[in-house]
Amino acid sequence: MTHFNLPHLKTRTFGRPTFHQPEVDSTQDLLKKLVDDGAKEGTIVLSDHQSAGRGRQKRTWFSLPGPQIFCSILLRPSLPSHRWPLINIVAGLALRRTLQEIGIAT
User: Fold this and answer.
1) How far apart are CA 44 and CA 22, in angstroms?
2) What is the model's pTM?
3) Which long-range contacts (CB under 8 A, 24 or more apart) does 49-56 make?
4) Are 41 and 76 within 8 A, CB to CB?
5) Neighbours of 24 (CB within 10 A)
6) What's the CA gap between 51 and 62, in Å, rounded?
């Protein structure tokens, strides 16, 4: 697993640190191991391929060959737990807007 910092980030928390592993069962599983080792909020785990990914409501899936990126981010929100699902929606919308702004079709 490669550990690196992203110097162009303008955040104090997110992506500090970032880890990358080309292939994993699940980025969530790898992040859980880092949490057990004391990972801080904002830690990011990236992978190019997952063989046992999990999504919302514990739905499982796998990635097909080709250029992709999979990501898990350690959050410790101060929101009540019933509002946590909104984080995925907001993050997805922010990602879509960002990709459009840099010219990547969505």
Assistant:
1) 14
2) 0.80
3) 49/22, 49/23, 49/24, 50/23, 50/24, 50/25, 50/26, 51/23, 51/24, 51/25, 52/25, 52/26, 53/26, 53/27, 53/28, 54/26, 54/28, 56/85, 56/88
4) yes
5) 23
6) 5
- Name the 3-class secondary structure at 31: helix
- What is the pLDDT at residue 83? 92
What type of residue sits at position 101? E
Burial degree of 28 (CB within 10 A; 0-12, 13-18, 19+):
middle
Report the chain (106 residues): mean pLDDT per 10 consecutive residues.
77 86 92 95 92 80 79 92 90 89 79
